[in-house]
Amino acid sequence: MDLKRYISLIKAGEVAAFPTETVYGLGADAWNPDAIAKVFEIKGRPSDNPLIVHISEESQIEAFARDIPAAAHQLIEAFWPGPLTLVLHKKPEVLDAVTAGLDTVALRMPDHEKALALISQSGPLVAPSANKSGSPSPTKAKHVHTDFGDDFPVIDGEATRIGLESTVIDLTQSVPAILRPGSISRKQIEDVLETFVEESFFHQPEKPRSPGQKYSHYKPKAEVRWLEENESTDDVRTLYLVQSSSVISSNVIQYNGELDRMAKELYDRFREADLENFSTVAIQPFDDSDPIFGALKNRISKAIG
Ligand code: AMP
Ligand code: MG
User: Fold this and answer.
1) Tell me: the pLDDT tens digits for 157-172?
2) Based on the domain organization, do 114 and 165 belong to the same domain?
3) Is any atom of ligand 1 closer than 6 Å to the C-beta of 45?
4) β 52-54/104-108 pair status
5) Would the pLDDT of 266 be above 70?
């Protein structure tokens, strides 16, 4: 299918999946309540979990957000298009289905040619990850087909470059707060804003700052756990993700400290573990050597538990 076909689908109030630099998104017209209802239905997503609006031009934030602080412009200048979602005060006309009834709205501009080409013609899209709620986010078109069927409309791209969902930062409080870690780190954001940035993504199911925080995400069916310090890597029913190992075998995947590569592959490994009936994914702890460290550790911790 060529791009025109997907644009028509979206304009007709249907949904279609598309690649971004983070994960594949399930796109629907951000101004069409029926289309957005389909997103929740297809995903099986709880309705109190808000959606991120994806835009292709900076000026489009004006239609969704009000009282935009200077910090937003600084972050946009530094990181857009890119894997940073800004939570801002919403305009009254933004649909409740988008914000789950909150008075804030989340916005980002993806850094992906195909995503931007689609959005520039369809208009702003809500786009949660294109997976069934509860399963790992899709980083390849085939993951979307696994979850939604072979005929599901997906704009095919390569495997996504980053592989973990965007950093979400709330700019509506007196102190900027990271609600979800991503490949853009707190340090990178603090360097741009020249101010302290809080992290509030620790698991507090009763008091989530961000509604998505109370849901278990990113989990395969296999049990995910950390590898013990002197544990051997020879159980055939376990998929091992390690930094280095003296034992070479088909179920021991080595990353040699390349955390970017590990992040890019993580959800694919989780899905592969289930397809190949591994009972366990054991991950060797790794050092904080890269901006993506926090996000990678966060997703693994969530998968563990
Ligand atoms: P997903 O689309 O699955 O990557 O998830 C989007 C996530 O963005 C949600 O689960 C929330 O954590 C966050 N989010 C979206 N909108 C808001 C908002 N208005 N306030 C706080 N967090 C939000
Ligand atoms: Mg998701």
Assistant:
1) 999 999 999 999 999 9
2) yes
3) no
4) parallel
5) yes
Q: Which ligand is nearest to the Cα of residue 172, counting in written order?
A: 1
User: Model confidence at 249, in pLDDT bands (50, 70, 90)?
Assistant: confident
- Find the Cα–Cα–Cα–Cα dihedral 216, 217, 219, 225, rounded to 10°: -70
Cα gap 197→189, rounded to integer Å: 8
Is 165 a pocket residue for ligand 1 (Cβ < 6 Å)? yes
Strand 167-170 and strand 16-18: the pairing is unpaired
Mutate to test the pocket of ligand 1, among 61, 95, 168 (most ligand atoms within 8 A of CB): 168
Q: Which of 52, 105, 164, 209 to mutate to test the pocket of ligand 1 (most atoms within 8 A of CB)?
A: 52
> Is residue 32 located within the same domain as residue 96?
yes
Q: What domain range includes position 82?
A: 4-199
User: What six digits make up the tokens of 255?
Assistant: 């990353």
Q: Answer with the one of 199, 234, 255 that is the final residue of a domain.
A: 199
CA distance 296 to 305: 14
Nearest alpha carbon, ligand 1 atom 21:
210
Residues 181 and 238 in one domain: no
Q: Based on the domain organization, do 241 and 190 belong to the same domain?
A: no
CATH number at residue 58: 3.90.870.10
Let me know if residue 205 belongs to a domain: no
CA of 298 to the centre of ligand 1 (A): 16
- Which of 199, 214, 240 delimits the end of a domain? 199
Q: Give me the number of domains the chain comprises.
A: 2
Q: Is 55 in the pocket of ligand 1 (CB under 6 A)?
A: no
For ligand 1, whether the C-beta of 210 sits within 6 Å is yes
Q: What is the mean pLDDT of residues 226-247?
A: 93
pLDDT in tens, 182-210: 999 999 999 999 999 999 886 555 556 66
Pairing verdict, β 84-89 and 25-29: unpaired
